[in-house]
Automatic annotation (TrEMBL), chain A:
Keyword RNA-binding: no
InterPro entries assigned to the protein according to its UniProt record, in alphabetical order: Cyt_c-like_dom_sf, Cyt_c_Planctomycete-type, GH29D-like_dom, LRR_dom_sf
Residue span(s) of domain Cytochrome C Planctomycete-type: 192-251
Species this chain originates from: Flavivirga amylovorans
Keyword list, A-Z: Membrane, Transmembrane, Transmembrane helix
GH29D-like beta-sandwich domain ranges (all copies): 486-546
Entry-linked Pfam families: CHB_HEX_C_1 (PF13290), PSCyt1 (PF07635)
Keyword NAD in annotation: no
Designated name of the protein: FN3 associated domain-containing protein
TM region positions: 7-25, 45-62, 74-96, 108-126, 133-152
Domain of life: Bacteria
TrEMBL record, chain B:
PANTHER family per UniProt: BLL7424 PROTEIN, DUF1501 DOMAIN-CONTAINING PROTEIN
Organism of derivation: Flavivirga amylovorans
Name of the protein described by the UniProt record: DUF1501 domain-containing protein
Superkingdom classification of source: Bacteria
Phylogenetic placement of the source organism: Bacteria, Pseudomonadati, Bacteroidota, Flavobacteriia, Flavobacteriales
Length: 704, 484
């Protein structure tokens, strides 16, 4: 026994050294995460010292009822146990406190706990001196009571015990609550009353009741009816925070802007403690402030859900490339679902959602080929709040599925085939607040009758084109921009609107409704010319005719079987391959920009080799449409253009070369080079050397 | 990136080793308690919330940002200053100007004659918001928008100011706002990029728009903004080559995916994984995108609402319509840039074209979202990078004037997504030079936008070059007063 006693005392002593050490170096110690659970067991372990200390006291009280030797043995044993558990609980508590609790309450709790631990250890050392022992033991009991109370205050909140009593009296704030009791007094309670209360009247001021407020303090009345700027209360609030007179004092929670605004307006209104929201005109500033800000904030804070979180694996499994299932936030079990992709839609995407039927609060199915039959499980989504069914194939019957969705607040049926007969069912959706009905089968009268039937619901019918003003149509466009053709290729025009008629001319005259009507892709005979112009316009009733669209078509000439470019350009902003662009059969007409129709050459020249296959050809002309961009330079932006011919791609014969000494950069739109008659070649090389200070843009190379 | 490769090679590093060993060894307990750095990694991890989910429940899910590139004048749009008309031609008092630096363009000017708006203002809607006659359509929807008249910024020239507005820093190379949202929330529709960019250009004096404005900065490259082209075919090279069927493409991607996966196992470079994801997304985009970019099925009256320009690719109206379609399809962040607002001279003439370009389509976009019940979950932001001076740049005549850059105050408006509709926030002095009430800095706006999207701007961070970066750097306060 003696040996065990010694070991125990040594251990307890060691633990106290650790405790003292921790206390000394508290600021430098950081708790590793795996020790945190140990700290968090503090609330579990602390019950031992509490009970043991109480037991020691009890034993002391009933000492005489117990046989002497047994008492001593048991009491000593319990004392050792007490000290051991106390120091353990204290160390754990310290570890827990390092996780970042900081408050006055915490300080009290901590130091009392530490003190108890050391006192209990002292009890062991002075066990022989029974008188001192008794005094210290009783002090311990008192200490443990307080430390316990503060500790409980930390975990449960200081008002934990009295809470049920207070909560019963807490008034429910509504439109009928006097503004003073509902909103103003609570501000004072929260920010002022801790110093200005009947017990602790700083400056002789008590702000805990209206009577006290009206009475004022040592500097007289603090609120002057209708005179917010003259009222001492606000004067003090508006002083700079460094000012000694500023209230609340520096370091205490300050009034927020909206709180000040409310008090200001309330004083301006005349310090009337009976006036409530219903008694005020809607235009009254006080009404607006209270209604917009205060009533709302006090009334419905954050939406709280009482259902459980969905299993993360279930949520994970429901997500697929076309379905997005996501919890509203880390702290909210509610789930938003959106399904995308018209072509990829499968009915299972919706039926699978039954797995989260409780948590589903927002569902977006717009633009999907959804029919009523896909929505059989809607009725099981009892917490659904928002449902978006825009541009789907649903009918009036869909609402029948929704009757058990008691929380549905917002329903979007825009761009669907629902009509006014839906109204009877809609009436049964009690919590509906917003209804979107743009572009449905409802007339204006239908909407207004629906408005009358659904009184509380905000119905949005959306944009209705009420002006008879005719908007101008967009001009027709050429599909794929393909404007380099031969006589058998067809030309396809397009317009983005249904019901548009396109008329065109081939002779350069202005198109009108007597011109040719575009019905289907047509062939264009160039009649041996190098280019031909089509002009087209779009017409539609109710719309102003479009501006004229002009398309110039070019003869394709000879098309190489293979084409390569020595330096297919790579530009910082985009990458495109010149060996495709230069022969893509699109000759860009629009302004030069980085697009898939222009090849760009910066420091390297354009060197292109065209292969015309086994049937050698004779070229008479080449044509490049080009543009240059860059600094103004005195010399020509293009230095020369040269055409060479070869049969084997190694021995080249120069056929023609043109050197440019001066070229007007602005007018530079194309380069043509006529080639003197020569023998036929399989390969032709085009060489354009430009001034490297500019960028050369080339749209197309044509060979004739 | 290097770090990841390195770690993958070792497969276990010091931290892993120690944290694993420590679990088994009670003895390390006291040691690590006294040497806080020993297991430091843990406290970092607990601070960072997992990505892809909002920090708190909020209304807004998507953003459409209508960037009016070049800085539209607040004095001709939303900030009505009749006093300036009264004081026409008088010099700006030095006391008002204070120590405001000037641009190189007006620094040499000997006088700063005040000039008021040539265009009239009226009050609209229940909110009674003042809107200039240049914006008749936006005037009709004032009850759906919140005008912030007290924006201010640090930069005085276009590029730094725009970069600041987009990325929260004046120098480039930081991630753009859209990239941060892509990083923090991911894409709602997994078949489309989370961040799309659309460009258009007005007739007025244009300022550069560079791809750095939608850069992912140091974030993973999947978060980069995807610029759609201004053509009939907004995403280039998306269609399969002629003669290639889709099954073949699928097979090819499967095999390619296997090869990439092998490569990833060997090198552990996270960019390989991004690449695999991008291939897969591109494959799904092939069907998703044509559905979205096809505006031919839009009802006629919708085309009228946006204006006929909406059928001409590359116009602001077409981009607004496309923005609605993209946003409706779950693109987290759609960003439009409309160039041409930089009216140093001939403001009276140029601003009319510019306003005509954007007024109808901007209003139509908001109306269109509203009638589909989507405005609640979509935040629309309209604004330029800074404001314009209340004094004239260059020659002041009765009929025409110009305005220089002004960072001290400018107006923007926002709609939907939990913004308090039908309100105005902030005030400038009667000369429209300084803010006198409720200033909103760019950082504050960023913090507010993030708050509306359910993100805490102080907690969405990315560790790069040894420190944690945020969109708002070390600044920003949420403007609670404009949030419902």
């Amino acid at each position: 026994m003696k040996k065990i006693t010694n070991i125990t005392i040594n251990i307890v002593f060691f633990l106290h050294v650790v405790l003292a050490f921790l206390l000394l170096f508290e600021g430098y110690v950081e708790v590793p995460f795996w020790l945190q659970p140990l700290g968090r067991m503090h609330p579990l372990v602390l019950h031992f010292p509490v009970a043991f200390i109480a037991l020691l006291v009890l034993m002391q009280l009933f000492k005489k009822a117990i046989d002497g030797t047994s008492f001593n043995t048991i009491n000593w044993f319990v004392l050792l146990l007490t000290s051991f558990t106390t120091v353990i609980a204290t160390i754990m508590g310290l570890v827990l406190s390092l996780e970042g609790y900081e408050s006055e309450l915490m300080t009290w709790h901590k130091w009392m706990g530490v003190a108890i631990s050391f006192v209990v250890f002292t009890l062991i050392l002075i066990y022989k001196y029974q008188k001192v022992y008794k005094v210290l033991l009783f002090a311990c009991l008192i200490g443990v009571t307080f430390a316990g109370h503060y500790g409980a205050g930390l975990t449960h909140g200081t008002h934990f015990i009295t809470e049920p009593l207070v909560a019963m009296n807490k008034p429910k704030v509504s439109e009928n609550t006097p503004i003073y009791t509902g909103f103003v007094q609570p501000i004072l309670d929260a920010k002022c009353v801790s110093c200005h209360n009947p017990q602790k009247k700083k400056g002789e001021l008590d702000l805990s009741t209206l009577a006290g407020v009206k009475k004022g303090g040592e500097n007289g009345s603090v609120w002057l009816a209708h005179q917010p700027d003259e009222s001492l209360f606000l004067k003090r609030v508006f002083l700079p925070i460094e000012d000694k007179e500023h209230m609340p004092p520096e370091g205490k929670p300050q009034l927020t802007d909206s709180e000040i605004k409310l008090i200001q307006t309330w004083i301006k209104h005349g310090i009337n403690d009976t006036v409530s929201l219903v008694g005020l005109q809607k235009t009254d500033t006080l009404h607006q402030i209270v209604n917009n800000k205060w009533l709302k904030e006090v009334g419905d804070k954050i939406v709280q859900y009482d259902f459980d979180y969905a299993d993360t694996d279930v949520v994970e499994a429901l997500n697929n490339p076309y379905t997005t299932v996501i919890q509203k936030s880390h702290k909210s079990p509610a789930i938003d679902v959106a399904i995308f992709g018209k072509k990829s839609f499968k009915p299972e995407y919706i039926s699978d959602l039954s797995k989260i039927k409780e948590q589903l609060v927002s569902l977006n199915l717009s633009n999907l080929p959804v029919q009523d039959s896909h929505l059989n499980n809607l009725s099981s989504f009892e917490n659904l709040e928002v449902l978006i069914l825009n541009s789907t194939q649903i009918t009036n019957d869909v609402v029948k599925q929704l009757l058990s969705c008691k929380k549905l607040k917002s329903l979007s049926l825009s761009d669907t085939k629902v009509d006014v007969k839906i109204s009877d069912d809609l009436k049964k959706l009690e919590s509906l607040e917003e209804l979107y009905l743009w572009n449905t089968n409802m007339t204006e009268e239908d909407i207004s009758s629906l408005r009358a039937a659904l009184n509380d619901v905000n119905i949005v019918e959306g944009y209705i084109n009420d002006t008879k003003e005719e908007t101008i149509l967009a001009p027709p466009v050429l599909v794929d921009d393909k404007n380099i053709i031969n006589s058998v290729e067809k030309i396809t025009l397009k317009h983005k609107m249904a019901g548009v008629e396109m008329y065109y001319t081939l002779d350069g005259s202005k198109p009108d409704k007597n011109s040719l009507l575009y019905k289907a892709p047509f062939e264009l005979n160039l009649n041996g010319k190098k280019s031909k112009t089509i002009k087209a316009k779009a017409f539609k009733s109710g719309w102003e005719q479009s501006k004229e669209a002009k398309f110039v078509f070019y003869d394709k000439g000879l098309k190489p079987v293979a084409f390569e470019v020595e330096y297919p350009n790579i530009h910082a902003d985009y990458i495109a391959h010149a060996n495709q662009i230069l022969v893509d059969e699109v000759k860009p007409e629009n302004k030069v920009k980085y697009s898939k129709f222009w090849a760009v050459f910066k420091d390297k020249p354009l060197i292109a080799i065209a292969d015309f296959g086994n049937n050698n050809v004779v070229l008479s002309e080449i044509n490049l449409n080009i543009s240059v961009r860059g600094k103004k330079i005195k010399k020509s932006p293009i230095q020369f253009i040269e055409v060479l011919g070869s049969d084997n791609k190694t021995d080249w014969t120069s056929l023609e070369k043109k050197i440019f000494l001066r070229l007007n950069k602005e007018k530079l739109k194309s380069l043509e080079l006529a080639i003197p008659k020569s023998k036929s070649y399989r390969y032709y090389k085009v060489f354009v050397k430009h001034n490297p200070k500019i960028e050369l843009f080339v749209g197309q190379i044509l060979f004739y | 990136m290097k770090k990841e490769v390195f770690e993958n090679n070792l497969n276990i590093n010091r931290r892993h080793f120690l944290s694993k060993a420590a679990l088994g060894l009670g003895g390390v307990a006291l040691g690590s308690l006294l040497m806080p750095d020993l297991l430091k990694g843990a406290s970092d991890a607990s601070n960072q919330l997992p990505l892809g989910m909002r920090h708190f429940a909020s209304k807004a899910k998507r953003i459409i940002f209508l960037v009016q590139n070049g800085a539209p004048s607040q004095l001709e749009s939303f900030d009505y200053k009749p006093k300036l008309n009264e004081m026409f031609g008088q010099d700006l008092p030095a006391s008002i100007r204070g120590d405001q630096r000037l641009t190189g363009m007006t620094a040499d000017q000997t006088s700063f004659p005040l000039v008021g708006s040539k265009f009239g203002f009226k009050q609209y809607g229940q909110s009674g918001a003042w809107v200039s006659d240049l914006f008749p359509n936006i005037a009709k929807i004032t009850d759906d928008i919140c005008i912030v008249k007290s924006m201010h910024t640090d930069a005085i020239n276009h590029d730094p100011a725009l970069t600041f507005f987009q990325t929260g820093a004046q120098v480039g190379s930081r991630p753009s706002m859209g990239s941060w949202f892509s990083y923090g929330l991911g894409s709602e529709n997994k078949n489309l990029p989370a961040y799309c960019v659309l460009l258009s250009k007005g007739k007025g004096n244009g300022q550069g728009v560079y791809s750095k404005l939608w850069s992912n900065g140091f974030l993973d490259s999947t978060h980069q903004g995807v610029q759609l082209s201004a053509s009939e075919d907004p995403i280039l090279y998306l269609s399969d080559p002629k003669g290639l069927d889709r099954g073949f493409r699928r097979n090819m991607l499967n095999k390619l995916g296997e090869l990439n996966e092998m490569s990833y196992q060997e090198f552990g470079d996270p960019e390989i994984q991004s690449k695999i994801k991008q291939y897969e997304m591109a494959f799904r985009m092939q069907t998703a995108v044509p559905e979205i970019t096809d505006v031919s099925k839009e009802p006629d009256h919708i085309k009228k609402m946006y204006g006929s320009d909406c059928m001409i690719p590359g116009t602001y109206a077409a981009n607004c319509l496309l923005a609605r379609k993209l946003s409706e399809s779950g693109v987290r962040f759609v960003q439009l840039y409309h160039q041409g607002w930089d009216q140093h001279k001939n403001l009276v003439g140029d601003i009319q074209h510019q306003a005509k370009d954007v007024d109808q389509a901007s209003a139509a976009l908001i109306t269109d979202l509203k009638q589909r019940g989507l405005l609640d979950e979509t935040l629309v932001i309209w604004g330029g990078e800074f404001g314009r001076t209340n004094y004239c740049q260059g020659k002041l005549t009765k009929d025409n004037y110009g305005r220089d850059h002004h960072p001290r105050c400018f107006s923007i408006f926002m709609a939907g997504g939990g913004i308090k509709a039908g309100t105005s926030y902030g005030e400038t002095d009667e000369l429209g030079y300084n803010i006198i009430k409720n200033p909103v800095h760019i950082h504050d706006l960023h913090a507010t936008i993030m708050h509306l999207m359910g993100l805490d701007h102080e907690r969405l961070t990315y560790k790069h070059l040894g420190r944690r970066f945020r969109l708002t750097d070390v600044h920003g306060h949420v403007v609670k007063d404009i949030i419902t």
